[in-house]
Design brief:
The complex is a heterodimer of chains A (957) and B (440). Chain A is α/β, with parallel strands linked by helices and 957 residues long. Chain A contains 28 helices and 37 strands. Chain A has 5 domains: 139 residues, ADC-like domains (N-terminal domain of TfIIb); 138 residues, Rossmann fold, CATH 3.40.50.740; 174 residues, 3-Layer(aba) Sandwich (Dimethylsulfoxide Reductase, domain 2), CATH 3.40.228; 118 residues, Barwin-like endoglucanases (Beta Barrel); 256 residues, Alpha-Beta Plaits (2-Layer Sandwich). Chain B has one domain: Up-down Bundle (Formate dehydrogenase/DMSO reductase fold), CATH 1.20.1630. The chains are: A alpha/beta (957), B mainly alpha (440).
Chain lengths: 957, 440
């Protein structure tokens, strides 16, 4: 063979091998591009956006995935989306870390006889399922299909699968099932759904236990609406609650009622409208005052406010519907909505699609059937009943009575731990699908990330594969093809361009008028008085929702807004109870309810009413909850709690150094200013203007085109923490872990400081680098690693930094962060760290959550907020290409971009026409201004003029 | 010169140079312990370089901890050497002659030890040279606004001048040592380093001129070094740091700690090398008086610090100084540190008003140890408590030193004592020629 022939042969062999390798194996549909073609003419390396939908909670906000060269970098709200219009919440921002969650299952896993897991192929997995199905059929057992809330086309496919494969589809299981609310609306209005609440149109809002900012309904939408109503209608927001929540601290007025006394309050308000409902609790002011613990004055004031308001709205939800009297509360609230003419602001045509979500009662029924040994193959997908159901249900134990258990999940949970087979599900960023934020709106879910690390599938693909194996007929190549078929049938052939461009499709339904209220059977109004003694409340968490996000490191890294605790679990205890028990923060308490016991460290919560204890959702293992016979939902208010101090104590990672401002006037509240905020002590206020405060040895800063500045509306800010999560993802801010947090080494560039100085409620302040004109950090750096850039930023040059840390010491705002270790994710944290889990470092593949436009910081250097300088650069380059200056609102930092309340305004303060300049001209407050630092971050107490920002060109070129 | 004086001179030479004779077992033990401590410190530093600053206890907001405390402490120790040799020389305080050699050695070794700490505390020590102005292709100079750059110059100047001053003072004694050299290596070394000193009138004339000049030159440095070190803090905005009294306050504190360290070192040295006849109680009394004086100045500074904080009416200053005094309610705050410091630096030295205490060597030794501890605590309080509670209450936090920081601190003592022990055997521990002058 001569040389030429040899090369030919090698070329042919290689080419053949490559071509052969290109053929996908059966059933290994690999998504490497979005469902619909992207517009042509993209420049490699330039960011672009793909529309999809967030699947972290039923709200299903529109998401634009920021992509560079096919890699998803960050999720942002889709501008103009009917639900969230550009914003995302803290969980939505963190959703990308679920894609790279180290705990994700990489391959199908089968339980070996020894109890250990073994990784298997998909074909083997399918084989095992089919074998189990056949066996169950022979044994005459029933095959069951239990899923979490399912909306959109997947529900139809599950139906089809169940029909063809002989499964029984069970009511879906969801922890937040709105059982009482749906039941009440069914009884009163004849529609058993959670309506869309038109808060934006209100001028008075009374929320009763409903955590409208955190998990209830559609939180981002509600938060945006509240902010809008505050600006446009001068909304008055009163929040009544039996515990303490972010809503209570954010509302203008917080009413603390006794647990379970909400029906009394509602009965009183109904009486104010001249309505008396037979069977409702007594409505006399004195009786109600006795029952609720509110004084008569504030009751009368509330009734007065409600009656006077031209467009009031009352929403009951959350913890208030999670007690024994939940159904009565919900029914009376619905009656009040009807009596007060509020039904115009309840839109059942846009109600939350709860699909086929059942209640806890249905799960109880399933548990009973399992106990009887009826079940053959049990599918459990996207839900974790074993970890969230009441412990008395003994669900995990009973599950084992099914002959074969299959879990479809992205990570191992209490439920999948009890299964014989676990099939890994793709993340929504790797999946095709659709979502239904509310009736009449369809959200597009499309794959944006290539599955490099995991051999996972979507539920739809798994079901199609199984059908294929079972019936030997394959209708659709993939679930994506199935979806396109469905959409074409539903929306007509021309749906594609709009769906692809906006990420949603609206099917205009006639606005459904709320029907007249119907009389309600008296047993729905039955109330029982809460017995004496401490009560324990399981409350929804803004970070963990119903506990499903607890495994996401980023959400653990960001402090809880109320307590500023980051990692771990705790029980909040009222100050008075803590005194009685002689408790300090971190002392361990043993809580026992029935057979359930748990030891948790205590955290004293100033605003919690005595006798109430609070634990966030997602306490691992089964819960001490029980089924509410009235609504079928869950009772999450537990009485008969036995509390014992164990004598042990742990250190809680509390990020706040003090819950008080110590009269320093950090937050621009007239009270604090009076307390002596004028810290240079010569008794004058701000009337002398800049004056002697700005004496400086150094020349004035000079700017030519831009001086970047920020204004933050503290009235609008709800302390939801979305900005913090956005900042972490945008700027590659390191997650450092619990151990480092205990040592005071968190890395957040922006934080939200709560201060509990007022008589009731609290003040919150987002704190980030103030980008001072006379910055204390700049003068002290010996090597010019921090310097003042020509656009006013206190720039930090990482590779010039030698790490003296003087800048951080000298910063009055303490916003500089030092890299004490190499915090970048690594495979084996033990390997390079002889101190064990000293760094507690994040594991791979979380390193893939990395913005290539922002440098990663090595150990030994200082870092800080940059006002998202990479975005400024991008905008400036684009402006330069077009021969103009950066337009106002063209560029916003990640924190301002995601803020659901649009509390953050960013812009060029040299331009007198920019929004930020206009706000500054109105007069603002700057923190520690008396030090002469001249910060560029301005704080105002509402309202910001011309608040619409999101619809402007945000640079999604 | 009388015969008696000549006899006296010979005895002096013999007694002082006897210290340089063959080391005893205890010397080797002491040296071994010091070297081991030093090596351990270096090993811990290496570990920290390889792992990250996080192995120390420093955090947010306390970015400076024991390393900077140690730096200021050692710079403070370094103070009295030059003070004793230069300032007291100019004032013709003759008791200095018994102490100046050892005190100057102490100064140089303390500056060397101190100089390590700014390096140890750097996040990226491998780029430490960026703090020096050197021509480079980045065309970047250090930031001369930063007190840390002033520090670089202040400390390195002080080290240079102190070393030159010490060496010049050593030359006549090296010539004496040359005469007593026991082997060729010693002979060669002393010959080279005594620069051909023969003690001619001409040489003495030049020598005295140079020594006086260097004393004049070194005197302002006594004030400047610690003033500049104090500006590391005073130039910041942090309550507890940002105050104009810092420069004199730090200088007084430095002299106090320096005098205490001289006593701590000289008492055992006098005992081991049997120098009781040369260094008498009278000489110690002179140092004790200086200790008392500087202790009173330091106490005055403590009072003024508080007075100014309250007089200013500045919320941050007042609440910080209250915190320093009382700590917070929770455990772990630095509540007792302040009172221990006051007891060590202000109260106990008052005993020196009694002649019996001043003239009791054991009492002085114990007292000097207390002052050493008190002065270390003073720096800890200034540096750590100020950072732990500054402006924003949300960012308040506590600092606790780790075993690494303790180990490196012990290592710094190891380095210091290693150098000092080597000095005892290699060079005349007392200034022979200057003591001789007293017996003419």
């Amino acid at each position: 063979m001569n040389r030429r022939d040899f090369l030919k042969a090698v070329g042919a062999a290689t080419g053949g091998a490559v071509v052969a390798g290109c053929e996908p194996k059966k059933g290994t549909y690999k998504a490497i591009s979005p469902l619909f073609p992207l517009p042509e003419g993209r420049i490699p390396g330039e960011p672009y956006y793909i529309r999809t939908t967030c699947t972290e909670c039923p709200a299903a906000c529109g998401v634009s995935v920021r992509m560079i060269d096919g890699v998803p970098l960050k999720l942002e709200g889709t501008p103009g989306h009917p639900v969230n219009d550009g914003s995302l919440c803290i969980r939505g921002q963190a959703a990308i870390t679920r894609l790279y969650n180290p705990r994700r299952i990489r391959k199908p896993m089968r339980r070996k006889s020894t109890g250990a897991w073994e990784e298997i192929d998909w074909d083997q997995a399918y084989g095992a399922i089919i074998e189990a199905v056949n066996r169950a059929r022979q044994e005459g057992r029933k095959n069951l299909y239990l899923s979490g809330r399912t909306a959109g086309s997947l529900g139809r496919l599950i139906d089809e699968f169940c029909r063809k494969a002989g499964f029984e589809r069970l009511p879906e299981y969801e922890v937040f099932d709105y059982a009482a609310l749906r039941q009440a609306n069914r009884l009163v209005f004849g529609i058993g759904e959670v309506p869309f609440y038109d808060i934006a149109g209100c001028d008075f809002l009374l929320t009763i236990g409903a955590d409208v900012l955190q998990t209830f309904g559609s939180p981002v939408s509600q938060q945006r609406q509240i902010a809008r109503a505050r600006r446009e209608n001068g909304l008055t927001w009163v929040h009544a609650e039996p515990h303490v929540s972010l809503e209570g601290l954010q509302a203008q007025k917080r009413l603390v009622v006794r647990p379970g006394s909400e029906p009394h309050l509602l009965s009183f308000l109904l009486a104010a409208y001249g309505k008396s409902i037979p069977g409702a609790p007594p409505s006399g002011a004195a009786a109600v005052s006795r029952a609720t613990g509110l004084d008569e004055g504030s009751l009368l004031e509330l009734a007065e406010q409600l009656r006077k308001a031209s467009r009031p709205l009352v929403i009951a939800g959350g913890v208030s519907l999670g007690g024994e009297n939940g159904l009565a509360t919900a029914v009376l609230c619905a009656q009040l909505q009807a009596a007060g003419g509020m039904t115009a602001r309840l839109d059942f045509g846009r109600s939350l699609d709860m699909g086929r979500v059942g209640t806890l009662k249905d799960l109880q029924a399933l548990a009973n059937r399992l106990e009887r040994g009826e079940a053959g193959v049990l599918f459990v997908t996207r839900t974790d009943p074993a970890g969230t159901a009441p412990d008395t249900m003994r669900f995990a134990e009973r599950m084992e009575k099914a002959s074969f258990r299959v879990a479809l999940a992205d990570a191992i949970s209490a439920t999948s731990e009890k299964c014989d087979l676990v099939l890994p599900l793709s993340h929504s960023l790797e999946s095709a699908g659709d979502a239904v934020p509310h009736r009449g709106l369809r959200g597009l879910v499309q794959p944006v990330a290539e599955k490099l690390l995991h051999d996972t599938k979507t539920e739809g693909d798994i079901l199609l594969d199984l059908l294929d194996e079972m019936t030997a007929e394959r209708e659709f190549r993939s679930y994506a093809a199935y979806l396109k078929e469905q959409w074409r049938a539903e929306f007509g052939p021309g749906y594609e361009p709009q769906f692809s461009a906006t990420g949603y499709l609206v099917r205009t339904a006639a606005r459904q008028a709320s029907p007249a209220p119907k009389p309600v059977p008296a047993q729905a109004l039955k109330t029982t008085a809460m017995p004496e003694g401490p009560v324990l409340a399981l409350v929804p968490s803004i970070r963990y929702y119903d506990g499903r996000s607890r495994s996401l490191k980023l959400l653990n890294e960001i402090p809880d807004p109320l307590t500023t605790i980051t990692y771990g679990e705790w029980v909040s205890v009222a100050q008075q109870d803590a005194q009685d028990l002689k408790l300090q923060d971190g002392d361990e308490l043993e809580l026992a309810v029935g057979t359930w016991t748990r030891v948790l460290p205590a955290k004293i919560q100033k605003r919690l009413p005595p006798g109430v204890m609070m634990v966030d959702r997602g306490v691992t293992g089964a819960c001490p909850t029980r089924v509410d016979p009235a609504s079928g939902g869950e009772v999450a208010w537990l009485t008969g709690v036995r509390v014992r101090k164990t004598g042990g104590a742990v250190r809680l990672p509390v990020m706040s150094g003090s819950p008080s401002q110590h009269g320093r006037g950090i937050i621009p509240d007239p009270v604090h200013l009076k307390e002596g905020g004028n810290a240079h002590g010569d008794g004058h206020g701000k009337e002398h203007g800049e004056g002697h405060h700005n004496l400086s040895l150094y020349p004035e800063q000079e700017y030519r085109d831009y001086r970047w500045a920020m204004a933050i509306d503290l009235d609008a800010c709800t302390a939801c923490g979305a900005c913090v999560a956005a900042c972490y993802v945008e700027n590659n801010v390191a997650m450092t872990g619990r151990d480092q947090h205990l040592r005071g080494r968190e890395m957040s560039w922006i934080r939200i400081e709560p201060f509990y100085d007022r008589e009731d409620g609290a003040d919150f302040l987002p704190m980030l680098c103030q980008q001072c004109d006379a910055a204390p950090c700049e003068a002290v750096c010996p090597v010019f690693a921090t310097y003042h850039n020509p656009e006013g930023l206190n720039a930090q040059i990482y590779n010039r930094c030698v790490g003296t840390r003087y800048c951080a010491n000298n910063c009055p705002y303490k916003v500089r962060r030092f890299n004490w270790f190499d915090y970048r994710p690594r495979r084996d944290p033990q390997l390079r760290q002889p101190h064990g889990d000293l760094t507690d470092s994040i594991e791979l593949p979380l390193d893939r959550v990395s913005n290539p436009l922002v440098s990663l910081r090595k150990r030994g250097v200082m870092e800080k907020c940059t006002f998202c300088v990479q975005r400024i650069r991008e905008a400036r380059d684009r402006a330069k290409d077009r021969g103009r200056k950066i337009k106002d609102g063209e560029m916003v930092p990640a924190c301002a971009q995601t803020c659901p309340s649009e509390a953050i305004v960013f812009g060029n303060s040299l331009d007198p026409e920019s929004r930020v300049s206009k706000i500054i001209q109105q007069g603002t407050h700057r923190v520690f201004e008396e030090l002469g630092t001249r910060p560029a971050v301005h704080y105002v107490n509402g309202p910001i003029p011309d608040a619409r920002l999101k619809n402007s060109d945000r640079g999604e070129a | 010169m009388t015969e008696q004086a000549v006899e006296q001179h010979h005895r002096l030479e013999r007694d002082i140079l006897a210290a340089m004779s063959r080391p005893t077992k205890w010397y080797w033990v002491a040296l071994g312990v010091s070297v081991a401590a030093f090596l351990m410190g270096m090993a811990l530093w290496l570990y920290m370089i390889l792992t990250g600053m996080g192995v120390a206890g420093i955090n947010n907001p306390v970015g400076w901890g024991v390393f900077i405390v140690d730096f200021v402490f050692w710079v403070g120790i370094a103070h009295s050497g030059t003070l004793i040799s230069a300032v007291l020389f100019l004032f013709r305080a003759r008791f200095r002659n018994r102490f100046n050699r050892a005190a100057e050695a102490m100064t140089i070794f303390a500056v060397m030890t101190a100089g390590l700490f700014p390096l140890i505390h750097l996040g990226r020590v491998w780029f430490a040279y960026w703090l020096f102005p050197y021509p480079n292709n980045h065309l970047i100079w250090p930031n001369f606004k930063s007190p840390l750059v002033w520090d670089v110059f202040a400390v390195s100047t002080y080290l240079t001048v102190s070393a030159v001053f010490w060496y010049v003072g050593l030359i006549p004694d090296l010539a004496i040592a040359r005469r007593h050299a026991k082997n060729r290596i010693q002979m060669w070394a002393y010959r080279v380093f005594s620069l051909g000193w023969v003690g001619s009138v001409q040489q003495w004339k030049h020598y005295n001129k140079l020594y006086g000049l260097l004393a004049c030159f070194a005197t302002p440095l006594v004030v400047s070094v610690h003033s500049v070190v104090s500006w590391d803090f005073a130039m910041s905005v942090i309550p507890g740091w940002h105050t104009t009294i810092f420069a004199p306050y730090f200088v007084a504190g430095a002299i106090l700690s320096g005098c205490a360290m001289v006593i701590t070192l000289m008492v055992p040295m006098r005992k081991f090398f049997r120098l009781e006849e040369i260094i008498t109680v009278k000489h110690f009394e002179g140092i004790a008086q200086m200790l008392l004086l500087t202790s009173l100045i330091v106490t005055y500074s403590y009072v003024v610090e508080y007075a100014i904080a309250f007089y200013s009416g500045n919320t941050y200053e007042i609440s910080h100084f209250v915190y320093r005094l009382l700590g917070a309610d929770e455990p772990g705050h630095y509540r007792y540190a302040y009172w221990v410091m006051v007891a060590c630096n202000s109260v106990l030295p008052l005993l020196l008003f009694f002649r019996r205490v001043r003239t009791s060597i054991p009492a002085l030794f114990v007292l000097s140890l207390f002052v050493n501890v008190g002065m270390w605590l003073e720096r800890f309080i200034i540096i750590v408590t100020s950072l732990a509670r500054d402006f924003d209450p949300y960012a308040w936090g506590l600092y606790k030193p780790t075993i690494i920081e303790v180990g490196i601190t012990i290592g710094s003592f190891g380095l210091f004592f290693t150098l000092f022990l080597l000095f005892c055997k290699a060079l005349p521990v007392l200034a022979i020629t200057e003591i001789k002058e007293e017996y003419t």
